[in-house]
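quick q for whoever's on today - can somebody do inverse folding on this one?? i tried earlier but teh output was garbage lol. tokens:
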């Protein structure tokens, strides 16, 4: 059975707030884990992450981590000092992940978020990123953390924007602690066929994010999740699945993701409805598979 989780971006970017009530709510609602964001300001505070990790353990909630890299921490910067800062930052986030108890760190770790050159990625940028990521993966291995690399859409990044890019990148890094993550929101924008994209990533998939086309409640938009969950079952995916959505808060994240109108009544309602939808879809494809075997 897949572990089911909720990304905390609809509540926080930093975990500086007291989210005790939210975490308790998510546990009582039936989630197996939470996906915790780590940003640049909190990447050196190991005591904070150890404390939160203890809180999650007490609740019986599993944990994964996610991060993005800003312009000042980009593995494809022409400035060598910025590339080195990116490697060091990602190693710090690995340390924070270990302190939390997370075995998976996911996100677009390979380049600066919304840092565009106005041109396609160059072979030099590719090589810089691959070399830096291999160093981070080697470090992550010593900490028991697997990197799950996520491609984004063309409006947010330009090094990896589709499944073909992602698979080529993971194979180039060529390290067991560098695997792949798949986000249905980005795939909906960039792939000609989401099912084929999932199949292409299958050998490396360590994490799935279920995200609707408008970043709202899964099942309330136009993504064909019947096909998505059918493909996940076909490839035998048994890893974690998390809901990711964005709302008007936190304001800085809403600005970064261009959320200008509310997409759901509340984060709590989104979480409950999204979890119910994922369970329904999983049961549906399982029943269909059983029927096909019986016939």
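ok took a stab at it. sequence:
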């Amino acid at each position: 059975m897949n572990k089911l989780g909720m990304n905390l971006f609809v509540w926080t970017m930093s975990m500086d707030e007291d989210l005790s009530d939210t975490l308790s709510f998510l546990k009582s609602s039936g989630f197996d884990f939470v996906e915790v964001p780590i940003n640049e300001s909190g990447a050196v505070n190991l005591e904070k992450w150890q404390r939160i990790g203890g809180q999650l353990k007490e609740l019986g909630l599993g944990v994964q981590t996610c991060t993005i890299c800003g312009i000042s921490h980009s593995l494809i910067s022409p400035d060598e000092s910025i590339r080195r800062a990116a490697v060091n930052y990602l190693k710090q986030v690995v340390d924070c992940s270990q302190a939390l108890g997370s075995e998976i760190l996911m996100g677009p770790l390979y380049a600066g978020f919304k840092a565009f050159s106005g041109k396609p990625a160059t072979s030099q940028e590719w090589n810089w990123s691959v070399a830096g990521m291999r160093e981070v993966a080697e470090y992550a291995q010593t900490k028991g953390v697997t990197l799950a690399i996520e491609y984004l859409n063309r409006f947010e990044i330009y090094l990896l924007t589709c499944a073909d890019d992602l698979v080529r990148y993971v194979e180039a890094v060529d390290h067991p602690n560098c695997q792949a993550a798949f986000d249905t929101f980005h795939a909906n924008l960039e792939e000609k066929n989401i099912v084929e994209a999932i199949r292409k990533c299958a050998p490396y998939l360590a994490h799935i994010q279920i995200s609707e086309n408008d970043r709202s409640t899964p099942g309330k938009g136009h993504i064909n999740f019947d096909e998505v969950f059918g493909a996940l079952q076909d490839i035998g995916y048994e890893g974690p699945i998390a809901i990711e959505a964005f709302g008007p808060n936190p304001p800085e994240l809403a600005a970064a993701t261009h959320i200008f109108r509310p997409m759901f009544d509340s984060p709590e309602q989104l979480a409950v409805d999204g979890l119910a939808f994922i369970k329904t879809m999983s049961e549906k494809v399982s029943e269909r598979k059983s029927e096909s075997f019986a016939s």
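fwiw The longest helix spans residues 267-294. also Residues 122 and 159 are 9 Å apart (CA to CA). so keep that in mind when u check it
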